[in-house]
Amino acid sequence: MLAEPLVPIGTDVDVAAVLRFLTPERGWLVLPALAEPHAHLDKAFLAERCENPTGDLLGAIDALIAYAPHITHADIVERAERAARLLLTNGTTAIRTHADVSVDVGMRHVEALLEVRDRLRDLVDIEVCVLLGCPSTGPEGREQIDRLREALRLGADLVGGCPHLEDDGVEATDTFLAVAAEFDVGVDLHTDETLDPSKLFLDHLSKRVVEMEFPHSVAASHCCSLAMQNDDVQRRIAEQVAAAGIHVVALPHTNLFLQGRDHQHAMPRGVTAVKALRAAGVNVAAGADNLQDPFNPVGRGDPLETAGLMIMTAHLLPDEALHTVSGAPRRMMGLPPADPASGDLVAVRASTVRDAIAFGPPDRIVLRRGRLVAGQLPAEALRPADPGSRQS
Fold it and tell me: From the record, what ranges are coiled-coil (predicted)?
């Protein structure tokens, strides 16, 4: 028996015909295409080579620094492309990835990710955000800031760094915003990735964005310490964030792994204050962050897995959780909502959104802008409608 012909990947298809084929009767559920708002493609799949014995954030950072001399441009390209294609296979057509940049590693990571971005541009939208090493302030930070500018001149899309790891997080925040304004690009900061309630640089970021009338997109990723504040502080900060138009990215995978190890009694989840942020009208997206590396040894490269964790850790309903890995991150990235009728979709073998998130079925068909970019689509899916049938 001959195998059924398949539509080649990269084919522009008749979306209406494909939607007539992907019906519940055939076992398909059609969803808007998914998005990954916070990845580290340059670190993906290092778990076996670069262990983190302590299991916390600083342990992961130290492990990566120690292993860095063994990481080459070709190695980054191979692992990053493998991770991006895995995300694509699972229905992800937009990815924001952070790229390590520092005096020590130079442009190696950002150059590799820019290469992957260009290689895959016909399949997936990839944004590259600089993740600048510390320190970025004071006399010692001048060379780091030079590296940031160099990365932006090479073609990186956004400015990023870690104010909570700096000696002066306020000055670091101001510096990142100033350089971003200089280059007319957005900002995505690793913000307050700690359970220390005294570190709340999101407060300053939200005020400073308004004060300087920063005209570009701003995202604050992690925001773990916000969850350690009382209700009144959470509400106040959330309202400031909403007024500033800042997007917040919750990262349950990695924060569940790294955070809370010193809180064995009433261990916190490490996930930001999603309820307060959403109540204030903040656009809250959710990402996986790290993929099988020292910061997170597991993960399947599947936004539906992230959605499941948002249900369990942030108490979202299934449709709300789906939005955090589709509509919300696309809004953050300045992309239009994924519209299946326009050819931005992922079809999964499921009956409901809850069913899709719960089981994460591997059999998926992915369209991006009317082009088949992943999955096995039978050629019969492109047959024109029967002229005798009634069309709505």
Answer: none
Handedness of CA 225, 226, 228, 233 (dihedral sign): positive
Residue ranges of the chain whose pLDDT lies below 70: 1-3, 387-392
| Terminal Cα-to-Cα distance of the chain (whole angstroms) | 36
State how far the Cα of 98 lies from the Cα of 225, in Å rounded to an integer: 21
Residues counted in the chain: 392
Structure tokens at 30: 């059609």
pLDDT of amino acid 388: 57
Specify the CATH number for the domain of residue 50.
Answer: 3.20.20.140
Residues 103 and 246 in one domain: yes
DSSP E strands, 108-246: 125-132, 158-159, 186-191, 218-222
> What element of type H or E holds 243?
helix 231-244
Structure confidence at residue 222 (pLDDT):
98
Sign of the C-alpha dihedral computed for residues 313, 242, 129 and 211 taken in this order: negative
Look at residue 188 and tell me if it is in a domain. yes
Q: In what order do the strands lie in the sheet with 92-101?
A: 34-39, 92-101, 125-132, 158-159, 186-191, 218-222, 247-250, 284-286
Pairing of strands 345-348, 29-32: antiparallel
157 shares a domain with 280 = yes
pLDDT at residue 58 in the model: 85
Owning domain of residue 378: 15-31+342-382
Give a yes or no: residue 52 inside a domain: yes
